[in-house]
Amino acid sequence: MEGIDHRMVSVNGITMHIAEKGPKKGPVVLLIHGFPDLWYTWRHQISGLSSLGYRAVAPDLRGYGDSNSPESFSEYTCLNVVGDLVALLDSVAGDQEKVFLVGHDWGAIIGWFLCLFRPEKIKGFVCLSVPYRSRNPKVKPVQGFKAVFGDDYYICRFQEPGKIEAEIASADPRIFLRNLFTGRTLGPSILPKDNPFGENPNPHSENIELPGWFSKNDLDFYVSKFEKTGFTGGLNYYRAMDLNWELTAPWTGAKIQVPVKFMTGDFDMVYTTPGMKEYIHGGGFSADVPTLQEIVVIEDAGHFVNQEKPQEVTAHINDFFTKLQDNNKSF
């Protein structure tokens, strides 16, 4: 991507790849990707925000892309990953007391943890897709998901090391990535053991139709990176969910105290999961996040709303951060 700088940064015992663009003294916006994603998901926001005077910084999280991939899932806890980001901020934004934060999917979850653990570092958080859910002290996450959605719920299917990786390899990573990015399945994501990824009988056809917002070059980029790294690093975030539950016991009942704007697509699989709309709009979300200032539902957009509607998402991000800057007079 034109004008985007790439470099490696040593953080928290690993080496992390980052993409960045914008004036060196501009307010830093940290952009955190999800699964199975990369810094590349923010390509449009990097260009858009940097043109508005921000310094956009988008890492490949540990386990992804050109960053290091520790082997054990126990090295992918919220404490490990937030530790990476705190060290990254010290490296790239050491002259700024606070930064702006944007997260999508697992990046949203990590963003919530960053706001929970180190709120003094964050000016404001734009969260895409995954709202904050306070810790349930009575039920471990995977057990809870299995009880509600069954054994074939995607998070449950991701738990056994090596198993889902073999299924992805059997189906072809290109199919897996294409269907995940461009699919519009509503509600909870179920992966039946028979044909979990909807294999195409001609997966390498050049005539496969892709939506206008996701080109063959985009798909090729993702495929090239995941063919190199595999998917285990990203899957390890799911395998550490119960460990996160144990580690975050001291934060049971804690509220988010950072200004927040939440965005989602109206066809997002998280937003259309039973009970989620009621939680987001019915007062549960704002009770857990007293500093929630805005909720935006973008029409005709799925899970990867930042890629599907890049200009709209970038404008919403800038609008929120501009309001915070005007209120704080600390630009």
UniProtKB/TrEMBL annotation:
Keywords, sorted A to Z: Hydrolase
Known EC number: 3.3.2.10
Domain AB hydrolase-1: 27-130
One Pfam entry name: Abhydrolase_1
Catalytic activity field: (24S)-24,25-epoxycucurbitadienol + H2O = (24R)-24,25-dihydroxycucurbitadienol; an epoxide + H2O = an ethanediol
Pathway assigned to this chain's UniProt record: Secondary metabolite biosynthesis; terpenoid biosynthesis
GO terms for MF: epoxide hydrolase activity
Function (record text): Epoxide hydrolase involved in the biosynthesis of cucurbitacin and mogroside tetracyclic triterpene natural products (e.g. siamenoside I and mogrosides IV, V and VI). Cucurbitacins have cytotoxic properties and exhibit deterrent taste as a defense barrier against herbivores. Mogrosides are nonsugar highly oxygenated compounds used as high-intensity zero-calorie sweeteners; they also possess pharmacological properties such as regulating immunity, lowering blood sugar and lipid levels, protecting the liver, and acting as antioxidants and antitumor agents.
Family statement drawn from the similarity comment of this UniProt entry: Belongs to the AB hydrolase superfamily. Epoxide hydrolase family.
Name used for this protein in its record: soluble epoxide hydrolase
Organism, scientific name: Arabidopsis thaliana x Arabidopsis arenosa
Lineage of origin: Eukaryota, Viridiplantae, Streptophyta, Embryophyta, Tracheophyta
